[in-house]
Write a structure and sequence with these properties.
A 4-stranded antiparallel beta sheet has the order 1-2-3-4, with helices on one face. The chain has 115 residues and is α+β, with helices and mostly antiparallel strands. It is elongated and about 75 Å long. The chain has 2 helices and 4 strands; from the N terminus they run H-H-E-E-E-E. 25% of the residues lie in helices and 32% in strands. The protein has one domain.
């Protein structure tokens, strides 16, 4: 009986407080929007090798990592950071009414000889 009550409570908690995970299309769409509008990457940008760094069935947030693909260096506007990886956090607002993501990119370092 107690096990059943705990299971029902976990499901109710999950539906109310757990945000969409790293692979959820809603999360990926928000990340894509941030990459295009904030980081000025092309619309053709996609995420590959998405992985969950932290989070689970009853998580308050998911910490995620992915590799951005679908563009070439020449397609980027001048001064745009060339991303090597994308890190993002999926969470709900404190009132649980809205899904939001925080996105950061790690720059791809290009080593060039200096004379």
């Amino acid at each position: 009986m107690l096990g059943g009550l705990l299971a029902i409570s976990a499901v109710a908690y999950h539906r109310r407080y757990t945000p969409p995970d790293c692979f959820d299309p809603r999360t990926v769409a928000l990340v894509h929007g941030s990459l295009v509008h904030h980081f000025h990457l092309p619309e053709s940008t996609r995420l590959q090798h998405i992985r969950t760094v932290a989070g689970g069935y009853v998580a308050f947030r998911f910490v995620c990592s992915a590799i951005p693909v679908g563009f070439t260096r020449d397609e980027l506007p001048p001064g745009t950071v060339i991303p090597a990886s994308v890190d993002y956090v999926s969470r709900l607002t404190p009132d649980g009414a809205r899904h939001e993501v925080s996105v950061s990119i790690a720059a791809h370092l290009i080593l060039e000889p200096v004379n």
